Amino acid sequence: MLDDPGYNGARGAFASVGATVRPVRVDSQGMDVDHGMAHYPHARLAYTAPSHQFPLCATLSLTRRLALLEWAESRQAWIFEDDYNSEFRYAARSLQALQGLDKHNRVIYAGTFSKMMYPEFRLGFLVVPGHLREQFATTKYFSDLCSGYLEQAVLARFIAEGHYASHVRRVRKPAMSVSWRWPPRLSAICRRK
Q1: Which residues neighbour 3 within 8 Å (Cβ) at sequence distance 6 or greater?
Q2: Contact 84, 49 (CB under 8 A)
Q3: Separation of alpha carbons 112 and 86, rounded Å
Q4: Aminotransferase class I/classII large domain location, by residue (predicted)?
Q5: In what order do the strands lie in the sheet with 23-27?
Q6: Residue 175 and residue 173: Cα distance in Å, rounded?
Q7: Which residues of 177-189 are buried (b: 16+ CB within 10 A; e: fewer)?
Q8: CATH number for the domain including 47?
């Protein structure tokens, strides 16, 4: 199951490995989990961007987050949480990531540093359940050998010394003030049902 409309890169990636991609409508509360479960009861994976859904800007509500987690546990299915833009949550109060709410190790969490650092900084990360780490590491090794060691080392130090957290706060403040000045039509598009 994938957000619809949603990120075509994810749709293409899943289709390229032979997955059957099933669209699940998105409204102002994010992926319509009940709709997905009703139409695709045998789905094995749900891909969603719950913090800042693309392209509608919806945030998956807490009720739907919990329903999605319950679905994954009851079906022994997976949730792929694409948190590509989580640092730029514009709501007054952000919701906890699905991965943070997951008590049954059913969420694979993906993030990137390219949005916060700069677009050419192509370094992302996965947080996977412990029993899948070796399998994911092996797949990563055989798919592209490595990510840039220098970039990883510099970023690790940047984070360890507290500079990343400071950078996030510094960048988020002006971005948030701009978001509240969007023209009314753009805001309406992002809130549409």
Answers
A1: 24, 26, 30, 31, 47, 48, 49, 53, 54
A2: yes
A3: 9
A4: 2-168
A5: 30-31, 23-27, 2-4, 45-48, 78-82, 107-112, 124-127
A6: 5
A7: eebeeeeeeeeee
A8: 3.40.640.10
Please tell me whether residue 164 adopts helix, strand or coil conformation: helix
Percent of the chain with pLDDT over 70: 84
Number of separate domains in the chain: 1
Query: What is the number of alpha carbons within 13 Å of residue 10 lying toward its C-beta?
Result: 23
Out of 6-20, 77-91, 120-134, least confident range: 77-91
Tell me the torsion sign for CA atoms 179, 64, 188, 110: positive
Structure tokens at 187: 């805001």
164: confidence class by pLDDT, cuts 50, 70, 90:
confident
- Category of 107 on φ-ψ map: left (φ > 0), alpha (ψ -120 to 50) or beta: beta
The one-character DSSP state at 95 is P
Name the band, by pLDDT with cuts 50, 70 and 90, for residue 193.
very low
In angstroms, the CA 183 to CA 193 distance is 18
Which structure tokens are listed for 77? 């299915």
- Residue ranges making up the domain that contains 91: 2-191
Outline where the chain has alpha helix (H): 8-16, 33-39, 62-75, 98-101, 133-144, 149-160, 163-179, 184-191
